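Before drawing any conclusions, I looked closely at one protein, both as residues and as discrete backbone shape codes, quoted below without any editing:
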Amino acid sequence: MRARTAEDRALIEMIDPVAETLGLAVVRVRLMGGTLRRRLQVMAERPADNDISVEECARLSRAISEVFDAADPIAGEYLLEVSSPGIDRPLTRLSDFDLFEGYEARLETDRMIEGRKRFKGTLAGTDEGNVAIDLDGETDTALIPFDWLIDAKLVLTDELLKAGAEKRAARNASDPDADTHSTDSED
């Protein structure tokens, strides 16, 4: 889910090592748009605290640009956009489902499971390669194979907003200028 298409997967293979040298992890890569002007969206964060500063986004953008200028992996013009995953972030790695356990999420699968492909509920961690989710209106915890997911995202709730505010407050307590350097939105 970190990369949706074959082209995205080829790009992420180039971007991952660049991000790692800067101490960052790529959350998702998407090349979007038609043939005239495309947009390459790269979401990244520090693995230690799932955060990223504006300066780190700029450094990653410059580093990706250097590699892409040499390799020229995208035909035609494109706009490179590097950002944080945002508060209502996509969940792209199995570990994300443990990290955000207890928060509400929307999941979509590539195949039907009990008559549907879309699920909404509270994340309940993982179990042997499956995402555990307490579905809205159901009593049992559902196990959905991670490999069947094509999209997963946290739902913007009061609880998630409160957690984001607490994270910013903690960051500001340790670095008073931190809030001016952080990015909390997807775009």
About this structure: The beta strands are 25-32, 37-45, 77-83, 104-113, 116-127, 130-135, 141-145, 149-154. The mean pLDDT is 91. The chain has four helices and eight strands. The chain has two domains: 6-83, 89-177.
